[in-house]
Amino acid sequence: MQHAHISPRIRALHDALIRMASVMNRPDVDERLVREAGIALDGALFPLLVMVERFGPIGIVELANRGGRDYTTVSRQVGRLERQGLVERRADGHDARVRAVVVTRKGKAMTDALDAARERMARALFADWSESEVDTLVGLLQRFACGLEAQVSADAVEKARG
């Protein structure tokens, strides 16, 4: 019988990522941020609005993949964001059959309020960190995120080739 082995360093990294994802996926954390931003937005819609603002124009399937949700659920939720005037669907510039989701001016104002609240909360979190420590953390996390995205993209290309 073969035993899988994970180094203590990778185990610690994975544990930290799980802890971070667990906190970031908590509805009460989203509610706190929405409250801090002074906006009225359903907790289920908030992460989608932010992803559309950050990654848009974006297709429903990609949005669902990024959010770890079923695309039919995401499509319904995007419809709710659309009815509130926060996003709109447009023909994709690369493929006219695809409808890409983009943030509206009203949606951008809402994500700006969320970003301001996030900034205030981060300042409290990093109050006893030096600017250099925060810069190092941000740089390493950005590098890590780019590496993860590249790996997932390469895996998708390989899978498509069969």
Describe this structure in words.
This protein has 162 residues and is mainly alpha-helical. The chain is built from seven helices and three strands, in the order αααβααββαα. The protein has helices at residues 8-24, 27-37, 46-55, 60-67, 71-83, 105-125, 131-161, and strands at 58-59, 87-91, 99-103. The protein has a three-stranded antiparallel beta sheet. Strand 2 (87-91) and strand 3 (99-103) form a beta hairpin. It is globular. The mean pLDDT is 90.
Keywords, separated by commas or semicolons:
about 160 residues; single chain; mainly alpha; three-stranded antiparallel β-sheet
Helix content: 55-70%
- Order of SSEs: HHHEHHEEHH
Characterize the biggest β-sheet. Answer: 3 strands, antiparallel
Shape: globular
How many separate helices? 7
* Biggest sheet: strand arrangement: 1-3-2
Strand runs, count? 3
Q: Round the Cα radius of gyration to an integer and report it.
A: 18 Å
Distance between the termini: 30 Å
- Class inferred from helices and paired strands: mainly alpha
Mean pLDDT: 90
Q: Strand content of the residues, in percent? A: 5-15%
Low-confidence stretches: none
What secondary-structure arrangement, pairings included, does this model have?
Layout lengths: L7 H17 L2 H11 L8 H10 L2 E2 H8 L3 H13 L3 E5 L7 E5 L1 H21 L5 H31 L1
Antiparallel strand pairs: 1-3, 2-3
Summarize the structure.
The protein is mostly helical and 162 residues long. It has seven helices and three strands. β2 and β3 form a beta hairpin.
